[in-house]
């Protein structure tokens, strides 16, 4: 590594170019355009190379952040890629969708002056730089062990576990229920935030490492988890949070009322946004209401906006309590999405064709903070009002996928339907079965799921070699 040089703090974070709002709101091309090499080097040179890098401690997959940034600062991108991919097999994905501002960047030494290093953007730069080369370099692989591991679910947790286990010398087979690998990366995140060719590129890297992948394979229906245990030495369950939640209110069975899962899957995985070039017709809605305030709500709203709808996000607290990333909120606002705060939907109202035509809502005010620290919304009596909508999307969260828990005896299941695990290892109550990611924790972040996959992989490797 190049010798560390003491630098005067530079609080001028380099901004990343992106499409103008009036342009991007009418297309599905990626909004953020990425750093150029010069911008990446300039940003990397801001890093103080702290002796105690708190950024690493806050990274769920324990990337050696200072070293990969130092390599960028020196213009040695190949070394930066090697350091980065030792811990993270999906850098181009994580650099785009992970909430670095809440994790690695949150304790950056420059944060006291709001000048944190753009770690995620630098991670994205390295991943994209590697893809621009003639061929991605492969890491050193351990000797073949003869042990076989089955991974159920091809999302972030499963892919991260597969990368570590294949590099450790084990045979790894992923069973994915959908027709495309990637899990939430493929069906849940819009093209303008995460182009699907990038997901495919990262998945193909694992194929080059030797990971075997089977799609359209529903463990729990196509084959039981118990039968996998007859053939494999260990099984890692990473089936995610595919059970959509709806607000409990009348009218949810009307046409035009969607879960965020269905709406985004139609648009992303089934290419509904490109009909008639795709085979999935999606009704062109005029006025869309999105219920919720998280990243998924922003994804739904910005997708509907691009399809020509007049979109309103309805949220029962104020803007200050929105749980979505600030970057996504600002992007939605710039693109013309409206926000209706301190408002609670009460019921969806249908027309004579059984299609949603309006929402009855109630105005709220903020009371005392709840257990999460956010001020609780309190209803204002008699403040009901109607708003016309021909589409309502529930984006209030998801529960763990119920299929494996329902078809596998001996698994301890939590009150919310999650598989109970040892948080340090991912071990379940069943011998030779591990689990991790959203199936264990409920819906969380991509990088948290990857961290869980890496923990489980380390535990599985220890078991297989003992």
Molecular structure report:
- It is a single chain.
- By secondary structure, this protein is of the alpha/beta class.
- The chain has 3 domains: 21-132, Orthogonal Bundle (Fumarate Reductase Iron-sulfur Protein, Chain B, domain 2); 148-242 and 399-465, FAD/NAD(P)-binding domain (3-Layer(bba) Sandwich); 246-396, FAD/NAD(P)-binding domain (3-Layer(bba) Sandwich).
- Helix content is 32%, strand content 16%.
- It contains 17 helices and 16 strands.
- It has helices spanning 21-24, 37-44, 54-57, 65-73, 77-85, 91-97, 119-132, 156-167, 184-187, 196-209, 225-231, 260-268, 295-306, 326-334, 403-407, 438-441, 446-465; strands spanning 148-152, 171-175, 212-214, 234-237, 243-244, 257-259, 287-291, 310-314, 338-340, 343-350, 356-369, 375-379, 385-388, 391-394, 398-399, 433-435.
- The strands form 4 sheets. A 5-stranded parallel sheet has the order 3-2-1-4-16, with helices on both faces.
- Strand 10 and strand 11 form a beta hairpin.
- Helix 2 (37-44) crosses helix 4, helix 4 runs antiparallel to helix 5 and helix 4 (65-73) packs across helix 7.
- The two termini are 35 Å apart.
- The mean pLDDT is 92.
From the structure above, extract its key features.
Fumarate Reductase Iron-sulfur Protein, Chain B, domain 2; 16 strands; alpha/beta; globular; FAD/NAD(P)-binding domain; 17 helices; 32% helix; five-stranded parallel beta sheet
